[in-house]
Amino acid sequence: MSFEHPDAPQAPLTVTNRLVADGFAGTWEELEPLELPDRAAFFARDNLEALRAVRHQREHQRELLIAAQSRFEPALVDDLLRLGLTVVSGGGENVQEPPTQRATDPGRIWLLTSGSTGRPKQVGHTLDTLLTVRGKQPPRTWLNPYTPGAYAWWQVTTLALAHPGTSMVCVDGGHPWAEIAAEHGVDAASGTPTFWRQALLTQRDELAGVDFKQITLGGEPVDQAVMDLLADAFPNARISWIYASSEAGASIAVHDGKAGFPVEWLDHRADEGRPALSVDGEELLISSPNRGDGVPATLRTGDRVEIRDGRVHITGRLGSDEINVGGTKVSAGKVRDVLLAHPGIAWAAIKARKAPVVGNLVQATVVLDDKGLTEDDIIRYCTEHLAETEVPRRVRIVEEIPLKESLKSDV
């Protein structure tokens, strides 16, 4: 059996790439496929189940959606049944058939959006549109800390499918993983800024045994402070950030170690199959050849951007990134970045707090690397670096970085 891709650096590609997941350590070829219906929505209990489903899909060109078992809930199941998918859970033991049958769309891979702004949607892709990196790659062993079926999980998994010499080690990103990474020779990893901050805060000693050559960030706004922290901790690594989503696919990749992307990329990237980037007001717009089926040619991302010092910075979601303080618009992303630039602050989140007269005030939640810092110290620091309306009037100090299953902050 072989895996082929028209843009892969070498074809055909045998399935000798190595996998480590939930007690399994072997090659794709040695991984036992998980038998599924022709059109299946599979709720996986762990990474190994998900990878077995991928092996089956790739071998037989099935139509497949993978989601973590934690996402199983009646409203979503109803949506998937209406889509014509057979819903499979419990390791294949529980099967719900759709009310009507339809023809299979061979090779179709469905992804679920996060549902953070409403009910999760289903977005159609193929392994071709999910493949982030197409050029020839050096042999790497990638850490995959993401939830099975998430877009970022597929990004790392397609690397392990498409490039010779690319191994993959799957872990639960919410638990300590550094020793596993060191044991299996991990030298590349992808994660959210929150994921990396938590790792540096709680596993710094163990991470000394991991010789990263490539570190990639995405899924959340990427600030300069976290890139500098990673560059300092892992001097042999190239530090990159990627903008990608279920809808737009992989759209932006920055490898110069800087937050934001060059303003020259706006309106000048629609060549050689690259996405075209533009800004309307404060919103990022993307026209991407990697977008999912049914996604508009020009996608309004809902992400807010700021242009500073010749770079375009993605600061957060429209609406949630903006706090109205007495009629003055305050960027939560700007306040967060100032706090994160403080060497004693490991993590920060900003939100509005209702207040009389002015309507809202800025509130910060922080995790400290320097336990000697006080709320007054932090407010005083902000006063020196921010306008009066931007200064947090309340600072909550918490002990642990809150991390969702998506590896994003839950604040």
Automatic annotation (TrEMBL):
<dbReference type="GO" id="GO:0006631">
    <property type="term" value="P:fatty acid metabolic process"/>
</dbReference>
<dbReference type="InterPro" id="IPR025110">
    <property type="entry name" value="AMP-bd_C"/>
</dbReference>
<dbReference type="Pfam" id="PF13193">
    <property type="entry name" value="AMP-binding_C"/>
</dbReference>
<dbReference type="Pfam" id="PF00501">
    <property type="entry name" value="AMP-binding"/>
</dbReference>
<feature type="domain" description="AMP-binding enzyme C-terminal">
    <location>
        <begin position="337"/>
        <end position="407"/>
    </location>
</feature>
<dbReference type="InterPro" id="IPR042099">
    <property type="entry name" value="ANL_N_sf"/>
</dbReference>
<dbReference type="InterPro" id="IPR045851">
    <property type="entry name" value="AMP-bd_C_sf"/>
</dbReference>
<keyword id="KW-0436">Ligase</keyword>
<protein>
    <submittedName>
        <fullName>Acyl-CoA synthetase (AMP-forming)/AMP-acid ligase II</fullName>
    </submittedName>
</protein>
<feature type="domain" description="AMP-dependent synthetase/ligase">
    <location>
        <begin position="87"/>
        <end position="284"/>
    </location>
</feature>
<dbReference type="InterPro" id="IPR000873">
    <property type="entry name" value="AMP-dep_synth/lig_dom"/>
</dbReference>
<dbReference type="GO" id="GO:0031956">
    <property type="term" value="F:medium-chain fatty acid-CoA ligase activity"/>
</dbReference>
<comment type="similarity">
    <text>Belongs to the ATP-dependent AMP-binding enzyme family.</text>
</comment>
